[in-house]
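Hello,

Our lab assistant flagged a job as stuck in the queue for most of the afternoon. It eventually completed. Since we weren't sure the result was trustworthy after the delay, we are filing this so someone can double-check. Below is the sequence as submitted and the structure that was eventually returned. Let us know if re-running is recommended.
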Amino acid sequence: MRTIYVDKIIPKMLMVKVLRPVWPAVVFSPLSSARLANIPEPPLPGPSGVRVRNRVCGLCASDLSLFHVHADPAIGPAALPGNSRFYLGHEVVSEVVEVGRQVKKLHPGQRVVMEHRETGASCHELGIDPACRFCQSGLNNLCENAGGMVGVGGGWSDGYTAQASNVFPVPDDLSDDQAAMIEPMSVAIHGVLRRPPGAQEQVLVLGAGIIGLLTMQAVRAFRPRARLTALARHPYQAQAARQCGADDVVTGGDVYAEMARLTGGRAYTAPLNRGMLMGGFDVVYDCVGSSTSITDALRWTRARGTVVLVGIDLTLLRVDLNPIWYQEVDLVGSKTHATSEWQGTRRHDFEWAIRFQRSGRMRIENLITHRFPLAEYRQAIRTATEKRRTHAIKVVFDL
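-- returned structure --
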């Protein structure tokens, strides 16, 4: 089985981190702990296990961060028990080829998508009974007993093994491309439902990568009449943002003044200070999660408004948190996907994504921009990383 993985070898990871700014190709060299390797076909991980063959898998920013050793070992989550090997790829649609004797709800030939396996095993996979309070309430993404990965391989592989509870059935009326986008759509949906906008509130989405664009679609799906503004870095992303429902797109210039104009707020500047708005957006979905984006998001949010952190830069961040105190702004986290509630209805975020694709309220047209076979993984990774040059939105492995 061909698979791409990153081994947790700290000296190698630190070496790549130091050399990468002057030698970007070090991530593909023998000095890197990332590998494309052929490994023996693994056995099922017990009687509740499944084996799948992959069909289509997206290249996600979190996978690219691991591959490029962008994450800082000093961040909080890095202190928790984890894997010694990370199999990359989780935005993947696969076909079941084998099931364990205790698996009743899946069968060979059925298509499935991966659910939470890449973030660590939850109580259900670890056989912990009673499950923790979060797993009991459908919030497996917040499991208090999360351990290492169960199974071998990932989406950037020919296939993988996992517990049956780590995969989610795909309906027959969705294409493979639609199925592969269920996971990133669910990330956007989960973020929006962490703090849904009001019917006519002013909403800002920071970032027009795939999660930002899908977050715009999710805002439109839940609140069609909200006033939606997007901040995009590149012209091709601005065009995509308009296609995904943005009323206004900001791409540069005096961004603080433009945010004030769009919201009816007032922009103030001072020497040695980037500025601050009085007034501003009701809710901001930050799909970047960098020091700059969080600092700006907090300054662009009205008093008692909300910033939802959908994306994250896995490094130690220097952020001005004063607006949280001065303006009583709420800063809310949103991690991957789970079970979310909307107007009294509680569903798995995958179910919301499937429903919205079926109804046409969330669409994938023009979002998958590049396809590569697994053997061309170096070119795929470069394409997904060098967006200014390639105009990539979503790059996928066609398996």
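-- support follow-up --
The delay was a queue issue, not a problem with the job. The result is valid. The domain at 190-335 is CATH 3.40.50.720 (Rossmann fold). The longest helix spans residues 182-194.
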